[in-house]
Specification:
Elements (H helix, E strand, L loop, with lengths): L1 H20 L9 H24 L10 E5 L2 E5 L1 E2 L2 H12 L6 E4 L2 E2 L2
Parallel strand pairs: 2-4, 3-5
Antiparallel strand pairs: 1-2
Length: 109
């Protein structure tokens, strides 16, 4: 009887260990790789933000906030004209690491 309990317990532990390593039957990326992806997104957002703030043609450049995820960048903030809004979008789209730009900037009246 005690050997069957040991066998049952070790089988349960082995199965628990296997299910902890998988997510719905597929292996996920290691935790450190997930953190690297977030770091890359943060670097992309910082690069876009720095390039927008360095452009003197955008008077409201310090109101622009940038979010990035998987190469997609969101621009939030204000512009005084449609041209300024388009200029910010052009800066973002030409930044290394950006694959798509979603311009949510509003026009200040």
């Amino acid at each position: 009887m005690p050997s069957s309990r040991i066998l049952l317990t070790s089988t349960m532990l082995a199965l628990t260990g296997l299910t902890a390593c998988t997510s719905h039957g597929t292996y996920g990326p290691p935790q450190h790789r997930q953190h690297q992806a977030f770091k890359i997104d943060g670097d992309t957002a910082a690069r876009v933000q720095a390039r927008i703030q360095a452009d003197n043609r955008l008077p409201l450049r310090y109101t622009v906030a940038v979010n990035a995820k998987d190469g997609m960048v969101e621009l939030l903030g204000e512009a005084r004209s449609a041209e300024e809004r388009q200029q910010a979008e052009a800066i973002a789209s030409s930044t290394h690491g950006v694959t798509q730009v979603k311009n949510l900037m509003t026009l200040r009246r």
